[in-house]
Amino acid sequence: MKMGEVELSCLAYAKMYLHASQFPRSSVNGLLLSSSPAGAAVCITDCVPLLHSHLSLAPITQLALTQVDVWCSQTQQRIVGYYQANACVSDSSPTPCALKIAEKIFEQCNNAVLLMIDGEKMFPGCRVPPIVMYERKDARWALKDKHTIMLRQWEETCSIVNQLFSSGDQTLLVDFDSHLDDITKDWTNQKLNAKIMELISPANGNV
Amino acid sequence: MSSISELYDVSWEEMRDKLRKWREENYRNSEQIVDVGEELINEHASKLGDDIWIIYEQVMIAALDCSRDDLAWSCLQELKRQFPDSHRVKRLAGMRLEALERYEDANKLYDSILQDDPTNTAARKRKISILRAQGKSSEAIRELNEYLEQFVGDQEAWHELSELYINEHDYAKAAFCLEELMMTNPHNHLYCEQYAEVKYTQGGLENLELARKYFAQALKLNNRNMRALFGLYMSASHIAASPKVSAKVKKDNVKYAAWATSQISRAYQMAGRGKKENKCSVKAVEEMLESMQITMS
Q: What pTM did the predictor assign?
């Protein structure tokens, strides 16, 4: 992978998509993780869905960031970005809250990305990934060149997301907010991760 | 495709009662309501008596939520036939237009209701919802403030306004709305906890102390509110770590934080029991609490 390129794995994409779909009337957000070592390119290998209410309030966000940090150090992952889907589908621009959190992540990771989910492109049969990515350039967050964003096996990824919906497995997704409502629910989504990995065809090896 | 009654082995009476429960407790589980309600209407309409009209209304709104315009339309037709001049039905017609994003037509409908009956709160609130859906937050806020000057006891409206202010990062005004809600609903732990979160977000020693007090209050009202427990832990920790506090205040807050830590640990230990899959989240909390204690001492 080249300098400045960002790769988004099927696992990360699927969970982000499921998160946004689970709460269509709210804004949702989450963190993007990488299990690859730091380098010129960014490989987003997983994500942690965080909130679906009061995104701009501090306590729960701080709590979630701290817990995910700890979990990452336990599992050799790094926080490399932030995603958000706005409640108002016609506006996918980053909110002040999104910029603030992305800025914090940038302090620890100098090629951090900010990913906004474009709700208008989330419909069955849409041929284009519903995402808009930003990177830190010249002290501001600028739109990333689409050609530097890699979504390998896009068709397969779409098919996997569809399968999750038809099997009802999309309900397995737990975000940090839901975890706080019921702490027996696992915000690291081990069960859902396993289901998604099963669906990713063995021929591809690591995705 | 098997029916709900077959899949879940329930009688039509149980389905009707479930719908009533969801209606009374204001659940927005629209997909379920559509599944159960549609079957009830199609198979058992004659048995429902006068209940059928409120069920049509409930199912129609749920159908709009699930983009089932076919079902919403047929429910609306039944209601229009039975109650031809009703404002309540007119409002439902307006909601359908909103769902189709025909906001101008919806507004015209609501305006005609208001011309007939200027005190119709439902129509006024729908107009505000349209502003919100269109992303016109400042206008929605302005209209909602005007509405509340007239209808000062409308809890739903106060809460909606607090949400709007939070989205606009106007925490002082959000706090004011939540204060109104806490005054009229002193036993509601959620309002206390949300108020505490807003105060914490505003920051500064005074706000942190207020936050801690209201997190504690929320816990008194509901000792299983995890957000309040974590909030108490975090606010007490920050206060204790502040160079501006007296030794006594520091000591007290260290005590509160320690208490919160033990409660959190206990809760997670109980949650982790027997469930292999959430061992990860349990471990993360344990380590987090440990590391935060080290930085505090």
A: 0.90
